[in-house]
Amino acid sequence: MNIIQLRKLFYEEVAKCNKCGFCLPSCPLYYVQKVESASPRGMNAITRAVIEGRLKWSPEIERSIFSCLGCGACTVACFPSVKTREMVFQDRECLVHEGLYPKVVDRLASYIQENHNISDEDNEERGDWREFLKDLPENNLEKDHAEVIYFVGCVSSFFPMAQKIPANMARIMERCRVDFTILGGEEWCCGFPLIGAGVPENIKALMDHNLEKVKEVGAKKIVFTCPSCYHIWKTFYEPDVEILSSSELLQQLLLEHPVSLKEINATVTYHDPCDLGRNSGVFEPPREVLKAIPGIHLVELPNNRQLAMCCGGGGNLEMVDPELSGKVAQIKIEEILKTGADMVVSSCQQCLRTISTRARRQKIDLVVKDLTDLVAEAIPTL
Amino acid sequence: MDTQELIDRIKKIVEPDYVLSSEMDLTLYSYDASLERDRPEVVVLPSSTEEVSGVVALAYREKIPVVARGSGTNLSGGTIPTKGGIVVHFSRMNRILEIDIPNRTVTVEPGVITLDLQNHLLNQGLVYAPDPASQKVSTLGGNLGENSGGPHCLKYGVTTNHVLGAEVVLYDGTVVWTGGKSQDHPGYDLTGLLVGSEGTLGLVTKIILKILRAPEAIKTILALYDTIEDASNTVSAIIAEGIVPATLEMMDNLIMTAVEESIHAGYPLDAAAVLIIELDGMSDGMDRQARKILEVCKRHHVREIQLAKDDAERERLWAGRKGAFGAVARLRPSYMVCDGTVARTKLPQVLSRVLETGKKYGVLIGNVFHAGDGNLHPLILFDERDEAELERVRKAASEILKICADAGGTISGEHGIGVEKIKEMPLIFSDSDLEAMRQVKRAFDPEDILNPGKILPGTLGVPQNG
Amino acid sequence: MANSTTHRLESLKGIVGPEYIKTDPETLSTYAVDSVMPWAVVFPGDPGQLSEVVRLACEEKLALVPWGSGSKMAMGALPSCLDLVICTRRLNRILDMDKANLTLTVQAGVRFKEIQSSLVLQEKRNDRERKGCFIPISPPCRHSATLGGIIAANSSGPTRLLYGLPRDIVLGVHYVGPNGEIIRMGGKTVKNVSGYDMCKLMIGSHGSLGILCEMTLRLLPLPESAGTFLSVFAGLSEASRFVDRVFETSLLPAAVEILNSMAFELMAPDVAAGLRTGRFAVAAALEGFQEAVDRMESEIREMALESGAEKDSYLQDHQHHDFWNHYSNLVPGLSECYPDLVSLKLNYPISTYIEVIELADSLISDTQLDYALLAHAGSGIAQIHFLVDQGDTKATDRIALVAERLLDRCKRIGGNLVIERAKPELKQRLPVWGLPREDMILIRRIKKEMDPLGLFCPGRFIRGI
Ligand SMILES: Cc1cc2nc3c(=O)[nH]c(=O)nc-3n(C[C@H](O)[C@H](O)[C@H](O)COP(=O)(O)OP(=O)(O)OC[C@H]3O[C@@H](n4cnc5c(N)ncnc54)[C@H](O)[C@@H]3O)c2cc1C
Ligand code: SF4
Ligand code: SF4
Ligand code: SF4
Question: Are A137 and A170 in contact (CB under 8 A)?
């Protein structure tokens, strides 16, 4: 991507920004940093100035553009709906082209290139979370053919803190007799991190591989516990099978299999993950699932659904600038604490990690759970 | 002093992370919500009055301009550093310092977002009344700087009617308080002068605002019309009935269409104009007032009336109005707002001349405005990248202001003069009038350090900045 | 010397006409400012004449004092010099009474009471009735006061609680500044941010920056219904309990006044008959839509009784108006009987009113002087009038002592104390405008810029500027 291409793609879009500033208060970065360069209006102005030749790509711009969480809150607040998030991703491509990008991008790209996942581990270890399962079926949850594919995603596969999520998801599906399989070492990174990092060139190979696998398994549905994978499959992959987030599948299951759930007496609040909620439009299913659990009292965050504030884990920021990411998480935590809820539930492994890591580091007593964790707790025989 | 030295010196006063001077940062502080552009030499984000005072004192010694900035949403170029210098961005000074219910005041730092304060107060059943449509992002310092108004100012008055006192950093860094919690201080009403002075008289670092008890009842009415004239006549007729509603807002078809596309507020697309009428206060007698208003509307051929049934519906009716400026970007990428104000009864006549002007210059004009106050906001829609069109827009805008001035009105009701309307100042002020304002400016800022080049045309008659 | 005086006189005569300049001792003594007599009194007939008079005065370096009806001339320190009194009496034209837009433009010499009476009248036009309207301020001395004087002195009254202050209703002013130039600021629109808000500067400037010649005011529709609820309490603590309760509700009274027994007796002799000293009365003006006023009356009555009101009464129609007329005309009335009347105005944060009134009460009762105290409960303003018998020379000492103590307290809590009326002897002993605050540096700078020769009311305003 270069400036000419950027101009072609986004000049009209960025010209719609009339600098009204309405997006400023909804941007978590601006909230934390209070400077124009950490704001949607600022990022749009950068893009425009670069397109118009008034500004040259620079390390400061790199810092600004690579700090965007991709949360999309700005576009919701913006009356002309300027697509800042999409523009930022294109800016990143240009910056990479100019050699201006955080080091982690290279590392990330090479891991994905070599290991087909975002860690430096062999992709065969993708299924390690299965160790959490007591009675693992003989097939190790890997079937040649199944109705449903469970696409686990890199983070839950490789980061210990999140590995409970796939374990619980698998348990629940087993319990509800879902005919599902995982792809194990044949599940490759969905490619989202590459888009976020401004190096989408290699994403095609990943997509082709994954789509091929879906065909081989002959699945009718794919289910995701990772909202970003879900989002990318929905917007980029366009396979001719049904794409479901874990919350949507759980909602279906609870409807179809009226399992009598255990009572869990707790006041919970729900954090809408950006890529699931605002960016994919899945707001109600997770709430319906929560309401289906007896004893759960749901209180909403002041900023919920479309207006939900990112946890700080979006857009690779955690890799690029962990401290800043932590500061955003802090605001999220404060918002959560104000509701007086006993715990916060999300439906995203990344939110879980970002929020609980920050809480732990700051010694804040906060219970953070994924929706799957809570449902698994509520299913009697699990 | 060269720029680098200036930056180094400022970094001794304000935390270096908050002293910005990269090309990128200077570009990002070269704009506000107006169409003007100009770059500062350095941007500072102070965290306390002392820091502001230190920066201003330095600027004074070195004769460098200082431009205060809140959220940069003003529509007249008030925050554009047209003469370079230092931009002081107040975003970090955003604490609500005290809510004093017995004295009905709240003390804030200037960077507090208007709506944040209002939400905070509402939890305690209190209100800070001025509600610019930009309240979600504007700062109270900016509101003070522009003397901002909003829909509810029809009944409650504009910002100046709610500012009781301010801590001000003067041109040489001296810090003084004007006004305060007690009213009627003997002496000149300096607080009153500061409000609306667009950062040209002093940098405000704390503000004492008046708070009111939240009204006990609210009634919101949406009235749709087939002609703009009927709608404007309704406005005057309601007031003639002896009712001063909390708001009397109007939007024309063009704006309604844009709003409808962006947020689906439920406005019909074929109505010529809509009025948003809100009553608030004690609940007693409100139904009767509402009935009277409905009668007046009917007398003026209202086509349809909607009454908000609950808070959610009220929010919905308002959401469209509050987002109107932003929404027009769906039609054309840029807009220019003319903020002329005329006596209420002149509205029908002035509005039709505004539309003629649009035709004359071949530009698209939508109207969304505070009808009750006679405060028009013709929005001229265009694409600022098209220079020929921009030129026509500037001409049309200037002509619209002239229309308002000729009708006995004024050229700015709430958005300020900034740089954008300086050349129209002589439409309403004589040389001696302007000279009187220059005297005030000289008294506050003898060397033209604070936001130079704004509000007043001509030179100040003081030593120019080097 | 004599020559130039004659010359001046001739020039002034040339401007206003010989019959409108007076130099006879009798007139001059009527227009003496704090006993300082001017050299002449001029009565310009229009702004043009006013402008020329001022221009001449500036050329000749004559010290000027503008004069409306004289009702507030007692305010201010002694003039440091005085040549001309400029009386605005003849600037009495109503320029634009726009009931449809609820604005009024008048010349400075128009009397408040007269214009108010014509505004409130209902009109019939094209078969439709137009409701009456009013200037929403309630200044003292409303019978005689001119609008120019009211604005220049920033006069307000009880209803400021609901309707605000002159600063909230003045939309535009014309004034004659040094050099005699007519400066036009603001306009006819309710909203106006074109240029600095110079109207604010003129309001309450007491003639120290220029002479107001014209002003545009915002009007309000006349309230549909109005009444006054009076109640009497055994002491301040009961009265304040009641007042605080009223302010905790969402009721919107137009005024809530606390009066000591003397003030109450002066204003409502019928209700106050037989009242023992030490009592405090509360007068609440209720204005608005019928239903709202009815509810306020009944709820406020209930609160008064629960707070221990000993007596109550509800005034309507002419009784209501009479009461507030009395209120407004208290000072002119008193000053007729007590030419040595001393009036203090205290300002302080709203919430501290009990402490201030208590202190005043206890300090003054030691002096054995009769005094009327009236406090705008929701605004943090109190007025104290000492009914000094003529020739009581000792009173001055005692009052000075009280005023000093009160000033000290007000200042400490963020307020101030202004001596609004007193004999020159007392004015010389005390800071008439209270203690200056840190913004004095700006006040001086403004005065210096706008009146470089120091000819407008020299010596009279705060710190002798
Ligand atoms: C979509 C949209 C809708 C709007 N609607 C309205 C409306 O309904 N009513 C209305 O009145 N305005 C409206 N505005 C204009 C604008 O929002 C207001 O003028 C607002 O008060 C500006 O606030 P700000 O924080 O952005 O101030 P800025 O734009 O940053 O500054 C405004 C002025 O105040 C000065 N200033 C800022 N802080 C200080 C300080 N601490 N001390 C001294 N001076 C200071 C600046 O120098 C500048 O001259 C709207 C603008 C937009 C874009
Ligand atoms: S991105 Fe949208 S909301 Fe933000 S400044 Fe631009 S137009 Fe306004
Ligand atoms: S996507 Fe989120 S982080 Fe990025 S600019 Fe928009 S609001 Fe800010
Ligand atoms: S993981 Fe998702 S998408 Fe995430 S809220 Fe948290 S960051 Fe924003």
Answer: no
The minimal CB distance from B410 to the residues C189, C290, C418 is found for C189
What pLDDT, in 10s, does the model give residues A194-206? 999 999 998 999 9
Tell which atom from ligand 3 comes closest to the C-alpha of A23. Answer: 7
Beta carbons of B67 and B451 less than 8 angstroms apart: yes
Cα A71 to middle of ligand 3, angstroms:
5
- Domain at C97-221: CATH code: 3.30.465.10
Give how far Cα B317 sits from Cα of A101, B309, B320, B383, Å.
45, 11, 6, 29
Query: In whole numbers, what is the pLDDT of chain C averaged over residues?
Result: 94
Q: Inform me whether the pLDDT recorded for C131 exceeds 90.
A: no
Give the pLDDT of residue B466. 33
CATH number belonging to the domain at C330-429, selected among 3.40.50.1240, 3.30.70.2740, 3.30.420.40, 3.40.50.300: 3.30.70.2740
- Residue ranges per domain, chain B? 3-89, 96-213, 217-326, 332-406, 431-466
Tens digits of residue pLDDT in B140-167:
999 999 999 999 999 999 999 999 999 9
Q: Does A263 touch chain B (CB under 8 A)?
A: no
CATH 3.30.43.10 fits B3-89, yes or no: yes
The Cα angle at residue B219 between residues B213 and B223, in degrees rounded to 5 = 140
A191 touches chain B (CB under 8 A): no
Q: Does C412 touch chain B (CB under 8 A)?
A: no
- Least CB-CB distance to A35: which of B20, B23, B262? B20
Is the fold of B96-213 the same as that of B217-326?
no
Cα atoms found within 13 Å of the Cα of residue B361, Cβ hemisphere only: 24
CB C355 within 8 A of CB C405: no
For domain B217-326, which architecture applies? 2-Layer Sandwich (3.30)
**Please, what are the domains in chain A?**
3-97 (1.10.1060.10), 104-253 (3.40.50), 258-378 (3.40.50.11810)
Q: Which residue has the tokens 């990269």?
A: B22
C100–B146 C-beta distance less than 8 A:
no
Query: Please, is C203 exposed, middle or buried when counting C-beta atoms within 10 Å of its C-beta (0-12, 13-18, 19+)?
Result: buried
Residue B434, pLDDT > 60, answer: yes
Model confidence over C362-395: pLDDT tens digits? 999 989 899 999 999 999 999 999 999 988 889 9
**CB-based contact (8 Å) between B32 and chain A?**
yes
CB contact set of C273 (below 8 Å; sequence gap of 6+): none
Question: Average pLDDT of B114-120?
Answer: 97
- Partner residue facing A24 (CB), from B18, B94, B137: B137
Fold type of domain B332-406 = Alpha-Beta Plaits (3.30.70)
Test mutation, C150, C171, C196, chain B, max B CBs within 10 A: C196
| Nearest beta carbon to residue B28 from set A22, A37, A58 | A37
- Please determine, for residue B462, whether its predicted confidence score (pLDDT) is greater than 80: no
Supply the CATH classification number for the domain C225-328. Answer: 3.30.70.2190
Helices (H), B175-284: 190-194, 228-240, 253-263
Residues 6+ apart with CB under 8 A from A119: A111, A154, A158, A159
User: Whose CA is closest to atom 2 on ligand 3?
Assistant: A71
**Residues B265, B313: contact at Cβ < 8 Å?**
no
CA neighbours closer than 13 Å in the CB half-sphere of residue B83: 16
Residue nearest to atom 4 of ligand 3 (CA): A68
Ligand 3: centre distance to CA A334 (Å): 19
B327 has a chain A CB within 8 A of its CB: yes
Nearest chain B residue to A302, by CA: B119
Ligand 3 center from residue A317 Cα (angstroms): 11
In testing the pocket of ligand 3, which one of A85, A272, A275 has its CB within 8 Å of the most ligand atoms?
Answer: A85
